[in-house]
Each structure stands twice: as structure tokens, then as C-alpha cells.
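Backbone-to-sequence.
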């Protein structure tokens, strides 16, 4: 029964790689942060995937992109990222309606997380 439940969690999150997820900080360790989503699934935000200036407290809600999902000892491990260019692309897609509608296409993103970012866009609309 538990094995089938773990396989369902793995399959669900494997299809959601690249999506933004909101989760609550549950536990803070030296090298990573353990988060819980609204369904109680455990998510991991490694130190290497955090913006250097970020400081989180227990109970705080944060958003991150699902970077990868893997099985370790038949347990699904969901790794999140806040430094990935994909995270910025998804945030822009949410916040800028022209990108969401497809009027503007993001060609490339280069960033220094927490410092600056450059986004190359292209539009096929004459306006």
C-alpha cells in the first residue's frame, strides 16, 4: 500500500518538473531546507539552489520550481530550485500577461541569482 502511494507521488511530480510550486518551510538544516506542500509531500531545497541572500524561517511560504524528481531507496525525492533560469521564466509567465498569451516569447535568460538578470525576448506582434 505504501509502495503504491510512493509510486503515485513520484509519477505525479515527475510530470510537473519545471512547474512552480508553493510550499511551507518545515525544517532548516545546514545544507538544505525541508518543505511541505499543501498535500503534505516532502520537498527539498538544497543550499546550492537557494539565492545567497535568502533567509527562511519555519512556517514561511516560499515559491520554487521543481528541478528534478528521483527515487532513492524507493522513496520519491523532489528537488526544488530558486536559482534556475527556468524559475525566473515561469515567474515572468505568471506576472506578464503578454508572455502568458504568447505575444512575447522568452528566448534566453542569464542571471546571477539575487543580483541581476537579463532576459532576451522576441515578439511576433507588430504592436
Amino acid at each position: 500500500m505504501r509502495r503504491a502511494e510512493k509510486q503515485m507521488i513520484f509519477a505525479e511530480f515527475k510530470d510537473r518538473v519545471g512547474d512552480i510550486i508553493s510550499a511551507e518551510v518545515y525544517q532548516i538544516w545546514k545544507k538544505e531546507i525541508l518543505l511541505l506542500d499543501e498535500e503534505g509531500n516532502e520537498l527539498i531545497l538544497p543550499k546550492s539552489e537557494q539565492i545567497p541572500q535568502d533567509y527562511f524561517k519555519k512556517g514561511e511560504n516560499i515559491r520554487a520550481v521543481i528541478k528534478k524528481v528521483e527515487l532513492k531507496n524507493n522513496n520519491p525525492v523532489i528537488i526544488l530550485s530558486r536559482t534556475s533560469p527556468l524559475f525566473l521564466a515561469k515567474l515572468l509567465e505568471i506576472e506578464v500577461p503578454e508572455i502568458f498569451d504568447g505575444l512575447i516569447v522568452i528566448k534566453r535568460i542569464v542571471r546571477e541569482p539575487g543580483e541581476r538578470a537579463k532576459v532576451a525576448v522576441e515578439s511576433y506582434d507588430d504592436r
